[in-house]
Amino acid sequence: MTRRLRLAAAVAALALAASACESGQAAGDGDVDLPDPVVDTEVTTRIDYVAMGDSFSAGPFIGTMRTDPQGCARSKDNYPAFLADWLDVASYTDVTCSAATTRDLHAPMVMFDGNTTGPQVDALSAETDLVTLGIGGNDFGIYDSLIQCQRGPAVACPVEQLRADTGKVTGRVKDAVRRIARVAPDAKVLVVGYPDILPTEGTCRAVGVPAEVLAPVTEVADLLNASIRRGARAADASYVDMAAVSDGHDVCAKGRAWVNGPRFRAGIAAPFHPKINGMRAVATEVFRQVTGADPEEITEYAEPDPDVVVLNEG
């Protein structure tokens, strides 16, 4: 893999996690308070849906990869695909791309294979009804710094700089949502936060560093999510709090883990990235936000109607 994809994969271990449904279970471990729907599905029965974001939305190496374009490492079983399936959308456009930053939402992006893809906002139109956006972790080289932090006491972790950089993400996310609103003024925008990937206490072989080394890493991860939430709310977008439903499903959770470990597993997931069960969990939580209800059926694989899928060849 190239450095760009390795960064997207390895860095996820330090700051983010995807959450998921295990064997068709709902994302929570008990009764949940369902939110008011952000889209009135009784009125808007067919939704034009656009998915935007980075690798935690794209789902690198989960099952079959889409080739439109290949350089984004975008799975056919990522959470946007599950959501499009369960919502029975009228159209589904997925422009999520591994290693994307907020800049790549509105400017051409050089993908990990060296080719270029267009700005993600180009997928939007005045007809867009629903947008999901998962972004921010690659901005300001935050993950690159966190990689250095996890190498242990011999490496100085620039915690103060990371704190400052995560704070800047608020403005980036707010600007991203406002750009979306200008192109798709009637769309409901849901900004999807990053679930926990590391244990809140202790450590394990999958993490590979002592518990005390994780403290600044988990702190920065929390600050990043808080910054993304502020940016979403400042721009009047809904925030999907995945950290709130991922407790106990981090990389150390073994059979309950919703993320892959440190080993690259083709067909399963990139290192420290969501597995398919993680994607189902994110889709479940987003579905709740969109409709105010649980999905009628949590399917094993994502199967949106092929006739509604919009391919992105650029």
From TrEMBL:
Annotated keywords: Hydrolase, Signal
Keyword Magnesium applies: no
Leader sequence residues: 1-20
InterPro entries: SEST-like, SGNH_hydro, SGNH_hydro_sf
Record GO terms (molecular function): hydrolase activity
Domain SGNH hydrolase-type esterase: 51-280
Protein name: SGNH/GDSL hydrolase family protein
Source organism (scientific name): Nocardioides cavernae
